[in-house]
Amino acid sequence: MSETTTAAVAEAADNELQLLLLEDSPRDAELLIDSLGLAQPRWRIEWTRNESEFLAALERGGFDLVLSDYELPGFSGVEALEQALRRRPGTPFVFVSGVIGEENAVEMLRRGATDYVLKERMGRLPMVIERAMREVRQERQRKLAERQLREADALYARVVDSLKDYAVILLDVQGQIRAWNAAASLIFGYAVDEVLGRSCELLLTPEDRAAGVLQAEMHTAAADGSASDDRWLLHKDGRRLWAEGVMTPLYSDGAAEPSGYSKIVRDATEAHEAASAVRRAKEEAERANRAKDRFLAVLSHELRTPLAPITAATFVLQRVAKVPPECEDLLPMIRRNVALEARLIDDLLDMTAIEEGKLHLKLQPLDVHRVVPTVIEMLGNDIQAKGLRLQLELQAQDTVVQGDEARLQQVVWNIVRNAVKFTPDGGSIRLRSYNDEAGRLCLECTDSGIGIAPESLSRIFVAFEQADQEVAEQFGGLGLGLTIARSLVARHGGSLEAHSDGRHQGATFRILLPTGTAATRPAGTPAAATPAPSPSAPLRHRLLLVEDHEDAAQVMKLLLEDLDYEVTLARSLQEALECGRSDRFDLIITDLGLPGGSGVEVARAFAPGVPVVALSGYGSEEDLRSTRAAGFASHLIKPVDPEQLQTTLRSLLRHPPTRR
């Protein structure tokens, strides 16, 4: 036996086969069964003698191979082959005959038989059977692989075509389209047969074609492994769509160079246009905010400017005019209401700055107890006018915080002024301080005023809200003071709380601020300001006042002269520059908005040799930063309080008056 036969027999021994035998001769059938049984004990053979038994066995099935004689009484081997092929296609069919002849054997093989064995060479039969079964297995594996490949291709096609939002385009190395999914047709409008074989450049805009974008993208993909590319592409109808895409190289097995490229594209036109709309809206909102800021600044300036001469004129009249006793309260009343109007303007601007995050604090160690007397002094006339009893209990030991003095003074002023405002004549206000268990500084203001209803406590810190309509109508106001105060305290790391037992039960407001080792105690009492020169002094400090508003200019000049300054008035930038060049001044006070230019140009021309003070209706945080950066020594906001003006001038005029 050959090595091939031996190997085939050995392989067959490992497999249990069911064989169907068609043989009319009992002797030949017995010889065949015995021969195969000796060679392959695990093979099982079902013997049929005639057509009916054979057909019945075909119907039952369950066998792996058919063995058949060629010549049978009343039923030929040809008919047996045809029945087997029809009823059990794919099952090997081997003729075992002594009379088939070579010519008939070839014909049977042509008709579908697997092989044939002559009875006198029965020893070949096991090898033929095993070879037939091996061919069957190979054929089945081939068909399985083909089916799996078809299924994979179909699955890939289904997956690719199911990507409704993603165009999948396969390109050859020249950039020509060789595959195009359904989404690509939906996105770009081309049917598959319209694009196959054409360059992918048909999707590019003319400017990108001219720039060689497709070649550059393929080069990048081959070099880096992928190329992301977001750009405008063209639809079949000529309209442009914003596409987000990525290109990756494709390689054949073992190839070093790409055999093609895959380009995946998503139509992101709506998202791109939405993002552009959001960007445009943001830019428009920013322009609107800038316009609003400018409007508020101009509005503030226009509202403050008429108040300035009223404040100055009232101050001068109080000093020099003889007023009948029954009218003595009128001038202080005018000053109080002008200050109130200015405070309302400040509140509106502060609220806007807080909402937009533009409020900046200058934090430094601050003794809060130093703020309280200043506030009491500011509200002294109102407290006295209503006959209120003020009780101070400043008992806190740790009173130093990191704070902005002007802003904390504003907070305390708001709280105490509210107590004064809502406490009836003859009532009482207690202002006390202490350190709580956490070491925080607590400043508490309690009044015997109208109180706050429980349901109103949650509203009093909301912008433009007041306790109720009755309070709003009786006492007026914008409802911003407490909102601003709480925001400022929060910016200092603290909190502002309110408590009341109800209407007509008074109210308590508590400011809590963190203290700590970081807050170093400030220096002691500041040096006293240089005293104002007496009227009999031989020389007076010489000031240049630059103001184009006629009323404000005349009254401010009168006020400064009443404070014993020698004043020269300039009404424009050019006039101010000429005065500054032709004469010597100890200090310059200038408005910011001037005919022919800006007060900033005055500061640039004379500071720091001569201190320049801005006196303007523009008083936002940005305005204050701008004037500091421009070299101004100070920035006063109209309508300036005459005492504040005098204090500022004295602090800047520490040298003797200038001689001509």
UniProtKB/TrEMBL annotation:
Pfam families reported for this sequence: HATPase_c (PF02518), HisKA (PF00512), PAS (PF00989), Response_reg (PF00072)
Coiled-coil ranges (or none): 271-298
Positions of modified residues (4-aspartylphosphate): D69, D591
Residue span, PAS domain: 152-209
Catalytic activity: ATP + protein L-histidine = ADP + protein N-phospho-L-histidine
EC assignment: 2.7.13.3
Response regulatory domain span: 18-134, 542-653
UniProt enzyme class: transferase
Stretches assigned to the Histidine kinase domain: 298-517
GO biological process: regulation of DNA-templated transcription
PROSITE patterns (alphabetical): HIS_KIN, PAC, PAS, RESPONSE_REGULATORY
Family matches, as NCBIfam families: sensory_box
Name of the featured protein: histidine kinase
Domain PAC: 227-280
Superkingdom of origin organism: Bacteria
Compartments, as annotated in UniProt: Cell inner membrane
GO molecular function, one term: histidine phosphotransfer kinase activity
Membrane topology, as annotated: Multi-pass membrane protein
Keyword Coiled coil included in the entry's annotation: yes
Keyword line: Coiled coil, Kinase, Phosphoprotein, Transferase
A cellular component annotation (GO) from this entry: plasma membrane
InterPro entries in the record: CheY-like_superfamily, HATPase_C_sf, HATPase_dom, His_kinase_dom, HisK_dim/P_dom, HisK_dim/P_sf, PAS, PAS-assoc_C
